[in-house]
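Subject: mismatched residue count in predicted assembly?

I count 676 residues in my input, but I want to confirm that the predicted structure covers every chain. Input:
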Amino acid sequence: MLILKNVDVFYGKIHTIKRVSLHVNKGEIVALIGGNGAGKTTLLRTISGLMRSSSGSLVFNGLDISKQSPDRIVKKGISHVPEGRLVFKPMSVEDNLLLGSFNWYTLKNRSEIKHDMERIYSIFPILEKRRKQLAGTLSGGEQQMLAIGRALMARPKFLLLDEPSMGLAPTVVKEIFRYIVELRDTYGLTVLLVEQNARSALRIANTGYVLETGRIILQGPAEDLLLNRDVQRAYLGRDVDYTI
Amino acid sequence: MYWEGEKECINREALKQLQLERLQSTLFRVYMNVPFYRKKFDEIGIDPDDFLSLEDLSKLPFTSKDDLRISYPYGMFAVPLSEVVRVQASSGTTGMPTAVGYTRNDIKSWSNLVARILMAGGVTQNDIVQIAFDYGLFTGALGLHFGAERLGASVIPISGGNTRRQVKIMQDFKTTALMCTPSYALSIADTIIETGINVNSLSLKYGLFGAEPWSEAMRHELQEKLNIIATDNYGLSEVMGPGVAGECLERNGLHINEDHFLVEVVNSETLEPLQTGETGELVITTLTKEAFPVIRFRTRDLTSLIIEPCPCGRTFVRMSKVMGRTDDMIKIKGINVFPSQVESVLFEIEGIEPHYQIIVDRKGAVDELTVLVEVSESIFFDRVKKQKDFIDLIKTRLASELGISVEVKPVEKRTLERFEGKAKRVIDKRKL
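Triage response: the counts match. Full output below for your records.
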């Protein structure tokens, strides 16, 4: 569905993404893990068009998207849930969701949009309860759900999720990950998931990539990466030498 | 039937992408973790970041068996030993051994790849698998063993040797699939016939043979004698062990597990890449190995690639049956001769037992090739004239196949050595 080949990205003069090749198949969750500053967020921002690659190709459903503007990319079916959620805090939950439909919003579509919003509420019932509340008053977990809900309002086929568990309590993290699995299994969404919480991410993912200083150093079935000692040591917070 | 259908029938475009991703990360890892590769890459000024396509592989240096020997035992490992859960060694048919290692993941994918090949050869979880390869440092037995278990088959780890016992176990345990070298399978078949057991009373259905080159004629012989479907499979310790490639029931070339191995065929002397379909030396790069990755490893095995789609539905390219090893190749009077060529001629002639040996010697400055063949008693004791005609027939056939004149000596049945592992067909007495 999404194929990256030899993508290079520069941040000013710094070569942040080096020759990255990766692919995401339809209906899969692919986890992209790696330490701080490895380039995970940069890579997502490049896919959604917020940053430009200097070379390489990004192909989504057979179409080259490397030169497309972010809003065009959304129209093609890729929605980005940014790191830190970035919900519009002074606006109500409902308005946040409505904004998510910017790419197909017309007065004529109002009833369909309404219908979609109901669907979001059925996935995240807590958002319905808070529909009139200002987004800034929601808890972290609720804001994350709102951010995902807002992305879904664009009717994406493909979701880019950047650190959805960041700053959340463990039980809330679990809940969020359950939602991500549900989005794949029930709604057939394809997900590229960036996470510091490598273990949880790999547990729900089909395949995984390990990014280190801008390079993919490992790729494979998620279950294999969980068994890989390098991954365990570096990203699963397990000191292998002491656990034997 | 497929073990991992989604992967075995992957579309070629997606496969290329997967191979590129895996090659890039493998190159990066060997560069970081194996001093041998780092040195080699640095020497010719190669940065692993420069690899943008699978074709770039040809810029890399080859890795030879000698490279592995120099770094014996652990020099080529890409992970610390604490992460290695198994060490094996190459069978050493051609000299000093080389050690190879496997991480937990390596063992897991090895088992999976073998399971794919077993299933391609007809084996399912309902089969009773007799593994008559030698257990030990040699990868053949344990590789197949783990793969067969992974598949869910019932495994009889009988190991090699004691042919009568093999037959008894085969009868008692109702073995349905036999795995060993083709030459040993032939010994087992002969023992079955000699002891007067009716082959049809056995439960045997499949034979998965490998670890040495064998001809189509040999396959025919084994299928007839054992009343089985015989498939070829291929692997080598340096690359992983069995599970690199294997035949499906079409029996027309071995599907290479291309999502884990990248293959090339090169001219074994000039090392130039060959056109698809031309016969040359197989070169393998591992794409997923963690403990013991190899880059452009020269296998010394001679084969050709078949890219035409296979009716079985697998999209992986096939390699033709290995026709020999570059080191088995006998150069006689400037002409290349492979034992497998001799074998296929011998199999075609009525009255010859499929056991033979090739002796190379030099009289003065002239090379001489002598083929010792076991012949059935009736011919051996027959009239001199008839025997002479028979020998002449073999000579003529061999000469036309090989392009050189050959001496043929008939010997009595059971006088040539039998092999329980890999057969040694050639004795070279020349002092070169």
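Strands of chain A lie at 2-11, 14-24, 29-33, 55-60, 63-64, 78-81, 158-162, 190-195, 207-212, 215-221. Marking this ticket as 'not a bug'.
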